[in-house]
Amino acid sequence: MSDFKFNCPHCKQSLEAPEEMLGLSIDCPGCNGKIEIPVPEPKIKSPPIPPSTQTTDWYYNLDGQRNGPISDDGIKELLADGTLSRESLVWKVGFDNWVPIAQTTLKMQIATVPPPLPCSVVKNGIVWTLAFFPIWGVILNHFIAKVTETDPNGFWFSFSFVALNTFFCFWDKSNLQEAGHDTKKFAWSMWLVPVYLFKRARALNQSLAYFITWMICFSPSLLVIIRYIIRFYAP
Asked: In whole angstroms, what separates CA 162 from the centre of its chain?
């Protein structure tokens, strides 16, 4: 331990004393006066400098539009209300390109949200049903014509068939959302079954088998449609 330096209050002589003698009374070696070794006041430590509260500004993609800047807390709110997902693209200064939220420091904001179910366990029963709908439509049309001995009304039959296809697309989209998948990128295509099947397969990194099956099954249906068109415009 280093010695504590102080001055005699009587003769002002400079003196030294070890720290263990602080507060004791001694005789000054210079003037023989009685002095008490002073106890130094404790040093007051400066409070630590708080870390910077400045938040990083983020830009995010929403429906093909660039939005921002926004803070970390802003991104957290958008994740909480479902506006953004772990796959949503974000960018900030220092990034070379846009990246999904799940690959940034923002991933801590989605730590409590379970990821989408793997594509390998997503049920495809509905879309495979859709894939064979065209051929079923032809069979049903032929059956009705045979039973009633008249051709079914082409317009109403086609309208009902399209409505049934759309219903199945909505049903499948709902199942995908329950599995945690983002369907915004292809939800509009539910009104066009082949487009929906194609975009669904791409979004889930699945085989295009059910899309190709639909295209093959649609060939006979196309012939039926052409027949109705010819009969409608025929004199």
From this structure: 33
Pick the closest to residue 193 from 219, 216, 167, 174 (CA basis): 167
pTM for the full predicted model: 0.50
Which element (helix H / strand E) includes 6?
strand 4-7
- The DSSP call for residue 83 is S
Token duo for residue 216: 């093959």
Where in the chain does DSSP place strands (E)? 4-7, 14-17, 25-27, 34-36, 58-62, 65-70, 89-91, 99-100
CA distance 35 to 22: 11
> CB neighbours (10 Å) of residue 40?
10
Phi–psi pair at 15, nearest 5 degrees: -130, 165
Bridge partner list, 4: 17
In a 3-state reduction of DSSP, which class is residue 39? coil
CA distances 42 to 2, 4, 45, 136, Å, are: 16, 13, 9, 91
Q: How far apart are the first and last CA of the chain?
A: 117
C-alpha 125/C-alpha 129 separation (Å) is 6
Q: Is 167 helix (H, G, I), strand (E, B) or coil?
A: helix
Q: pLDDT, tens digit, for every residue of 164-220?
A: 888 899 999 989 988 888 887 787 788 888 899 999 998 888 999 999 998 888 876
Q: What does the radius of gyration of the chain's CA atoms come to, in whole angstroms? A: 40
